[in-house]
Amino acid sequence: MIINNKRIVLVANTAWSMWNFRRGVMAAMLNAGYRVTVVAPEDESVSQIRGLGCDFIHLDMSAKGVNPIEDIKLAMRLAKIYRSLSADFIIHYTIKPNIYGSLAARYCNIPSLAITTGLGYTFVNEDIVTKIAHLLYKFSFKYPEDIWFLNEDDRQTFLNNRLVATDKAVLLHGEGVDLSHFTPQKKSRSDQAVCFLLIARMLWDKGIGEFVAAARIVKKQYPQATFQLLGGCGVANPSAIERTQIAVWEKEGVITYLGTTEDVRPIIADADCVVLPSFYSEGVPRTLMEAASMEKPIITTDNVGCRDVVIHGKTGLLCQVKDANSLAVACEAFIQISQSERNEMGRAGRLLMAEKFDEKIVIEQYMNAFKKYGIL
């Protein structure tokens, strides 16, 4: 049912992220009668975005690096797009759209919202790039109506560095998980071996190396335990792990590489525990929310974003960052608990997702914000 005819523009650094992380939000906007346009570099997800009912505009943008001339051109391209669409409201995701898109929206006198989806490498080192990023954020974040953060650590980082006004810094508990899609399922396998599953792009920063090292330690005492990797390798990222390295681990017999899949649910269902030993500055990891929604206990690092998804000892276990021994201890502790205790952890995890991370809660926050901003 058409409620209004306002044009909302969503801008991100990949079309893939819009489809995989925000399709429920986009569908809700369309159902509420908004005209939705996604602006991002084109990739394989464009047809699905259009199939949902959104318009799509390709954005020529380099997601990484700082090049003042190219970044000024990006702001100009965005301003041209916003004017051509007669946009009523703009939502920016990820670093460059947040900074340069917010400036372009201000230039066009169009209200906007910035959503930080994790700090990535931006605040890792105290170098010139970090200082430039601070200046850019502080200047550009004067203009959005609000700035949303996916976890409290990121929100506090911006507040402590005085990069955003307190009254504009709003917490959004992750980007939500569809609890009706990710439901508990029975295992298809009948063996009793404990299976640890890591789902992520194959990046060193995701803790893949620590996962492999922990697997070596655990398998000395529990040789039947299995350690699986699921996700793309050789991606365009300075932290990427090549397929040849994974093949070495496979030959060693320490891990099983599952490649990629369009539907993670059957693979999660067959795992006993989902692991993410990330030391990357995460927003809130989608894979952990999906696993918890399927009543799988979680082992993850006491790291930004990751710890938000776990209640230590109740829905899973936390380990130290960049510490394979700590991860191995957590895995061994999980092996030693009873099946009934594992089941209870899983049930508690799904309850936590329902209380804090249900996609319906996220959608409601968007809709309440539209009312607040008068986008009706």
From TrEMBL:
Which Gene3D superfamilies does the record cross-reference, listed alphabetically?
A: Glycogen Phosphorylase B
Recorded GO MF terms = glycosyltransferase activity
Q: What is the protein's given name?
A: Glycosyltransferase
Q: Which SUPFAM superfamilies match?
A: UDP-Glycosyltransferase/glycogen phosphorylase
Q: Which organism is it from?
A: Aeromonas media
User: Known InterPro entries for this protein?
Assistant: Glyco_trans_4-like_N
Q: Which residues form a coiled coil?
A: none
Domain Glycosyltransferase subfamily 4-like N-terminal, chain residue ranges per copy: 7-142
Domain of life of the native organism:
Bacteria
